[in-house]
Amino acid sequence: MEGVDYLRDERSKAQFDVETMKVAWAGSPEAFLVCDRMAKLVANDPVFEKFSKPMLGRKELFKNTLRKTAHAWKLVNDLHLTEEEAKWLRHYIDEPSYTDLQWEMFVPALEGQGTEEQKKKWVPLAKTMQIIGTYAQTELGHGSNVQGLETTATFDRQSDEFVIHSPTLTSSKWWPGGLAKVTTHAIVYARLIIDGHFYGVHGFIVQLRSLEDHSPLPGITLGDIGMKFGHGTYNTMDNGVARFDRVRIPRDQMLMRVSQVTKEGKYMKSNVPRQLGYATMVSVRQTIVSDASKALSRAVCIATRYSAIRRQFGSRDGGPETQVLDYKTQQSRLFPLVASAFAFRFASDWLKLLYTDVKQRLEVNDFSTLPEVHACTAGFKSLTTAATAEGIEECRKLCGGHGYLISSGLPELFAFYVPACTYEGENVVMLLQVARFLVKTVSDLGNKQPVGTAAYLGRASLLVQKNCVVQTAEDWLNPIAILEAFEARAARMAVGCCQRLAEFKSPEEGFAELSSDLAEASLAHCQVIVVSTFIRRLQQDIPGRGVKQALEVLCNVYALFLLHKHQGDFLATGYLTPKQASLANDQLRTLYSKVRPNAIALVDSFNHTDHYLSSVLGRYDGNVYPKLYEAALKDPLNDSDIADGIHQYVQPILKQKLHSSKL
Ligand SMILES: CCCCCCCC/C=C\CCCCCCCCCC(=O)SCCNC(=O)CCNC(=O)[C@H](O)C(C)(C)COP(=O)(O)OP(=O)(O)OC[C@H]1O[C@@H](n2cnc3c(N)ncnc32)[C@H](O)[C@@H]1OP(=O)(O)O
Ligand SMILES: Cc1cc2nc3c(=O)[nH]c(=O)nc-3n(C[C@H](O)[C@H](O)[C@H](O)COP(=O)(O)OP(=O)(O)OC[C@H]3O[C@@H](n4cnc5c(N)ncnc54)[C@H](O)[C@@H]3O)c2cc1C
C-alpha cells in the first residue's frame, strides 16, 4: 500500500515541534535551507541513484563515481552553487571520491601553507578544477610518524630545482585518495635536503600527470593500492601508490609559508611555528568531527524507525506483539546513541567556531591558541569517530538479522565510516597528543592559569579534594552536578598521571610506560568539553514548542550514559560513591522513558531523505516488509529459478550413484 505512513502514530506522540528541531539540528534557518535543498536535489536526480552500487565490480564502481562527480561539478557550475552548497551536494551524493581530497585537503594545504604568491597562482587553478590534487603524506613505511617520512626533496642549486625521490620501497607514497588514477597534482610531503643537511619534512607541489593526455609524467610510477574493507563504499575511491625517480620541480613549488629556501640554497625559518605545516590536518579533523554526527544520525535514524516497526513477543490473545523499541534494553542501547548524535553535532558547531577563530589568528601570526585547538581537534576526532563507528555497529545489531542485509544500509555505512578511526590521525595517537597538552597544562599550574577548555584544571587542587554532593536521582538532573563530576574525574586522572610521571627517570620513559592511562585521561578531558558544550548550548535561546526540553533530556542521557559506562573511573578516582553511581543509573532509566514518545520525531529532525539513508529498514514511511521483499527480489541471483552453475556443479552431486558402503 503506497502512501500509508506506518509511523504516523509514533509521530503523533511527539512532544516538541519537529520543524523547529530541524533548524536546531542544522544550526540555523539558513543552514537548514541549504541542506534541505541539496538533499532534495540529489535525491531527485537519477544520476545519483545508488541502489545498484553493491552489485558493481571494482572498475564499474570507480567509473560510476567518476560519472557522478562529473555530473555534480556540472550542477555546481550550471546552478552557480556556493562552496557551502557544493560541499553539501558532495555530502548527499554519499560516495567517497577524488573531490573529497581536492576540497578537504589539497585546497586547504595550498591556502594554509602557501605564500601569498603561491596561493595566487595555485588556488584559482584548483578551485576551478583545472588541476586536481591530493594530499600525499603517508608512505608504505610511515603514516602516524610524519617526521619519519623517507621521501626526499634535495635542492639543486644549479638548476634552482628540488629533486623529489623515493629512495626505498617503504618511502612509496601509499594511501592518498584519487592518486591512483585521477589526480594531476599532489602536495607531496618529503624531507628537505640542502647540501647534505636534513631540514625536516615539508610540502611540495608536484605535478603527477600530463594535463594533455593524463599519462603519468616521466619518473613517476602510479597505481592503486587494492580493494578495501567493505564493497561498494571506499572502493569507489582510487587510493594510490606513487614512486618518484628523481623528479624535478621548480624551487617555488615548495610550500613556503613556514620556511623558505632561497635561490642560493639558504634555509630560512619565518617566525611561524613548524607545526603550521600540520595545519591542514587540523582543518580536516574538524570536518571529520562534523561528519561523525552525520554518520551517527544516519545509523540511529534507521535503527529507531525500524525498532518502532519491528515487533517481537508479548502478544496476548492474538493482540499485537511488543514494539522492540519498548524494551528497556533496546532503549538503553539506542537512546544514548541518539543523544550522542546531538552531542557531537553541537560539539562540532563549537569546534568550527574555535577553528575559525584560530584561522583568523594564524593569518596575523598569532599562534597562542594553536596548542589548545590542536588538542581539541585531535581529541574530538578520536572521541567522535570511535563512538560513531561503535554506534553504527550497535545499530546494525539493534536491527537483528535484517541489519546484516546490505539493503538495511548499515553494513555499507559501517564499512565507509570505520576508517575514520585511522585516517587523519590514528585515534590512539591523537589521544596521546591530547595527553601531551594535558601534562604540560598540569605541570605548569604553579606558573600559569589555564584558560579555555582547560580552565577547569585551574581548579584541580579543589577538584581532587571535593566529593560529589548528589543525594537523590533527581539531583543528577542538575547540570552543575553533572559537569563537576566530569571535571573532577578528568582532573583527578590527569593529576594522577602527572604524579606518577614524576616517579620515572625521564618524562619520555614515564610517558611511554603510562601511555594507556594517559590516553584514558585524555578521553576523560575530551568528554568534559563535549558535555559542557551541550550544557552551554542549552543555556542559549532555543525556540519552538518543547524543543529545549527534549534537548535537555538528551543532554542528561548523554552525560549519565557516559557516567554509567565509565563508572569505574568515577569510582576509582573517589569522587563518587557506589550509591551515587547507582542513583545516576536510576535517573538514566527514567530519562529513557522521557525519550521514548519523542524517539521517531527526534530522528525525523535530522531531515534525512530516503535516498540519503538508502535503507529499507529506515524508510520514512516505515513500510519495511514489502520493501525488504522487493529489494531481495532485485538480487541478481533471483534473475532465474535455476542459477548459473547449478547444472554444472550441484546436479552431478545429486545424481551421483554411491554404493551403500560409502554412505
Ligand atoms: C557512504 C559514503 C559517504 C561518503 C561521504 C563523502 C563526503 C565526505 C566529506 C568529507 C570527508 C572529509 C575527509 C576526507 C577524507 C580524508 C582522507 C584522509 C586523509 C589522510 O589521512 S592524510 C594523512 C593524515 N596523517 C596524519 O594525520 C598523521 C598523524 N601524525 C601527526 O599528526 C604527527 O606526526 C604527530 C602529531 C603524531 C607527531 O608529530 P611530531 O612532530 O612528530 O611530534 P610531536 O613531538 O608529538 O609534536 C611536536 C609538537 O607539535 C605539536 N603538534 C603536533 N601536531 C600538531 C598540529 N596538527 N597542530 C599544532 N600542533 C601540533 C605537538 O603537540 C607537539 O607540541 P609540544 O612540543 O608538545 O608543545
Ligand atoms: C581510507 C583511508 C584513506 C586515507 N587517505 C589518505 C590520504 O589521502 N593521504 C594520506 O597521506 N594518507 C591517507 N591515509 C593514511 C592514514 O592517514 C594513515 O593510515 C593514518 O595516519 C595512520 O597511520 P599508519 O597507517 O601509519 O598507522 P600506524 O601508526 O602504523 O598504526 C598502527 C598501530 O600502531 C599504534 N601506534 C602508532 N604510533 C604509536 C605511538 N606513538 N604510541 C602508541 N601507539 C602507536 C596505533 O595506535 C595503531 O594501533 C588514508 C588511510 C585510510 C585508511
TrEMBL record:
Keywords from the named record: FAD, Fatty acid metabolism, Flavoprotein, Lipid metabolism, Oxidoreductase, Peroxisome
All residue ranges annotated as the Acyl-CoA oxidase C-alpha1 domain in the record: 278-439
Cofactor(s), by name: FAD
Residues forming coiled coils: none
GO cellular component, one term: peroxisome
Subcellular location: Peroxisome
GO biological process: fatty acid beta-oxidation using acyl-CoA oxidase; lipid homeostasis; long-chain fatty acid metabolic process
GO molecular function, one term: acyl-CoA oxidase activity
Primary residence: other
Domain Acyl-CoA oxidase C-terminal: 480-655
Residues holding FAD: T138, G177
Ranges for domain Acyl-coenzyme A oxidase N-terminal: 17-132
Family: Belongs to the acyl-CoA oxidase family.
PANTHER family linked to this entry: ELECTRON TRANSPORT OXIDOREDUCTASE, PEROXISOMAL ACYL-COENZYME A OXIDASE 1
Protein name: Acyl-coenzyme A oxidase
Organism name: Ambrosia artemisiifolia
